[in-house]
Write a structure and sequence with these properties.
heterodimer, A: mainly alpha, Sodium/glucose cotransporter, two-stranded antiparallel sheet, 4 strands, about 0% strand, disordered C terminus, B: mainly alpha, two-stranded antiparallel ribbon, 3 helices, elongated, transmembrane (chain B)
């Protein structure tokens, strides 16, 4: 069967499952819609968080990025997983104890200020839209390559699916759909990785395989009998040096920059509203802690495989393309040439493809995003595996899009309408606003996908930087420092956001020509500057809170109560503990 | 008031756990994975230079273990101070 037919079948089945789940688990109340009635099992919540968190960027782009960056690519691996440790210990249990629906609501209550709530809801909407724009485009690209439809048609199909289960099902529908999407995306990621690991190293566990040595079959695939028995990483280091690159296992970025970027990614992860909101959905505080662990476990399966995929793809790519006659190029090169994601320009006119670091002699221009998608073709895997990868990419993009849309819809209906503009809104009307908000957000997200604003790639750093520099300190101080008050929080958030935004805007938009290490402050790139914004936020908040009026008594009691799962007075028996029920 | 002191002791122990576990978190990622990576690369396990391994996989595996340890410690602590749910 052809790739296209297989893709239609597998993608069709997975979409039918998602929609079926959405109908089965549709939301009836606002509690259902925002937090799935706090009834989600921690393992299911962990899986859903994994799918929610792993976007088209994680699935499609990350391994490709790493394969081009070598060891420096590890900043994504560490940065996007380390945040869960912070979530489990510093945020999730306390926010779950607080027990309401959204992050802006927590900020508004804790700092007894509507303005604080509005600032954080604007941040939540901005962060979510920045993200969702990229997801919808990802959906379009996957559709167009594998189903041979125009990118815009692909975006519209994606919109219809998301519309259906996000608007109808709310958090409840999304959670169970995301569990299914996690299963699809992890299978789609692991199957080709396992195949390729066996082919190259004889080891069926890709996480270990890329540290192993090349098998006889692997040497044959690479067309280099001398490579047999050598460590794969050594061979790749050698290839890199021959082509003029730094060794794959060496880093080239300044360490200070890597350090700051990793902090920004970790803290940004812990501060992203669509991730935090997931910890509101479990029944108990202890579930919130363990569910962060499950989430990281499910994410780590993909994230420990990604560096292996990167190494396999890089070695395979260099070996099967470099110094090969264009006329005899492997079929995947020709397939991807049609999408414009691989370009070959025969600069020296010898009809042979040369891939080098030097721009003057390099003849191959390869888009990093194709590494995961083209991997099964590069390794000549059966057509159904290629179709499965397409379904996985779609699952990753759609699940993240849905989670983000829910944050936007909750920010509009719960925080803006019910919280600020019309406090007397009935539950039924609020649910209508929530659905309307989700529907409006789907349409705007789709428009972003069809007319991708050129700045999307530039503003991804914004999403993390802003989350790191705004939410994170406000929540942490809100729980760990009783003295933190509204003046400190407002100044901190504003200073953090303005500083981070100004630095990014200056280097990305105002003066992009000097966006290089010589001009950065302390050698920190715009991607890592959110870390400095966060530090400024913390300092402002601490100092200003110290010298202004302390928060009212009831707020201090609220903070106190967040710290204990259940407060029993001495002698109270378990059965009589009314506070056990939330 | 004794109960209040107990609760404060609970919170203090929670903070102590967090500080210890986050020190490990910092050590495996920022020290082993970034700042000391070149020194660690001199050591090899199979085909992996050690620093490269920490940066690529080791830190993530240890992050997972840290949360498991934290959950266990806290569940025990909740019971010890009688603030557990159910």
């Amino acid at each position: 069967m052809s790739i296209t037919l297989w893709t239609w079948i597998i993608v069709g089945i997975t979409f039918a499952v998602y929609i079926g789940i959405a109908i089965y688990a549709r939301a009836a109340s606002t509690g259902d819609f925002y937090v799935a009635e706090k009834s989600v099992h921690p393992i299911a919540n962990g899986m859903a968080t994994g799918a929610d968190w792993m976007s088209a960027a994680s699935f499609i782009s990350m391994a490709g990025l790493i394969s081009f960056m070598g060891r420096d690519g590890s900043m994504y691996l560490m940065g996007w997983t380390g945040g869960y440790v912070l979530l489990a210990m510093l945020l999730a249990p306390y926010l779950r104890k607080y027990g309401k629906f959204t992050v802006p609501q927590f900020i508004g209550d804790r700092y007894y200020s509507q303005s604080a709530r509005v600032i954080s809801l604007l941040c939540a909407i901005f962060v979510s839209f920045t993200y969702v724009a990229g997801q919808m485009r990802g959906v379009g690209v996957v559709f167009s390559r594998f189903l041979n439809v125009p990118i815009n048609t692909g975006v519209v199909i994606g919109m219809c699916i998301v519309f259906f289960y996000a608007v109808l099902g709310g958090m409840k529908g999304i959670t169970y759909t995301q569990v299914a999407q996690y299963c699809v995306l992890i299978c789609a990621y692991m199957v080709p990785a396992i195949f390729i690991s066996v082919q190259l190293t004889g080891n069926p566990i890709p996480m270990l395989g890329f540290g192993g040595s090349i098998s006889a079959g692997g040497a044959e695939i690479l067309g280099d009998p001398a490579a047999q028995g050598k460590y794969l990483l050594d061979v790749l280091d050698g290839l890199h040096k021959d082509l003029g690159f730094a060794a794959y296992t060496d880093g080239v970025r300044p360490k200070i920059d890597v350090f700051f970027i990793v902090v920004a990614l970790m803290v940004g992860t812990a501060g992203l509203p669509h991730v935090i909101i997931r910890f509101f959905t479990v029944p108990k505080i202890r579930d919130a802690r363990s569910s962060a662990g499950w989430a990281l476990f499910f994410i780590a399966i993909l994230y420990t495989t990604a560096p292996a995929v990167a190494v396999f793809a890089r070695t395979n790519f260099i070996k099967t393309v470099h110094n090969v006659e264009y006329a005899k190029a492997p079929s995947w090169v020709k397939n991807w040439e049609k999408t414009g994601l691989i370009k070959f320009e025969d600069k020296n006119g010898d009809g042979i493809m040369q891939y080098t670091k030097d721009k003057a002699t390099n003849e191959l221009d390869v888009d990093r995003d194709i590494m995961v998608l083209a991997n099964p073709e590069i390794a000549k895997l059966p057509n159904w595996v290629i179709a499965l990868v397409a379904a996985g990419g779609l699952a990753a993009a759609l699940s993240t899009a849905a989670g983000l849309l829910l944050v936007i819809s909750a920010a509009v209906s719960h925080d803006l309408m019910k919280g600020v503009i019309m406090p007397n809104l009935s539950e039924k009307a609020e649910l209508m606003w929530a659905r309307g908000g989700a529907a409006g957000a789907v349409v705007i997200a789709g428009l972003f996908g069809i007319y991708p604003p050129g700045f999307v790639a530039q503003v991804v750093a914004f999403a993390f930087g802003l989350a790191a520099a705004s939410f994170f300190p406000a929540i942490i101080m809100g729980v760990f420092n009783k003295r933190a008050n509204v003046y400190g929080a407002m100044t901190g958030m504003i200073v953090g956001i303005v500083f981070t935004a100004a630095y990014i805007i200056y280097f990305k938009f105002v003066n992009p020509s000097i966006n290089n290490p010589q001009h950065w402050w302390f050698g920190i790139s715009p991607e890592g500057i959110g870390t400095l914004g966060m530090i400024l936020n913390f300092v402002c908040m601490y100092v200003i809170s110290k010298f202004t009026k302390e928060p009212p008594q009831e707020i201090q009691e609220l903070v106190e109560s967040l710290r204990y799962p259940v407060e029993r007075t001495t002698g109270e028996t378990k059965a009589a503990g009314p506070s056990a029920a939330h | 008031m004794a109960r209040k002191e107990q609760l404060q002791a609970y919170w203090k122990e929670n903070l102590r756990y967090i500080i210890i576990l986050l020190s490990v978190w910092f050590g495996v990622s920022y020290l082993a994975g970034i700042l000391l990576v070149d020194q660690l690369d001199a050591v090899r396990i199979g085909g992996f230079p050690l620093g490269f391994w920490f940066a690529n996989q080791g830190s993530e595996v240890i992050f997972c273990l840290l949360i498991v340890v934290y959950v266990q410690l806290m569940n025990k602590l909740d019971r010890k101070y009688d603030v557990h749910e159910d």
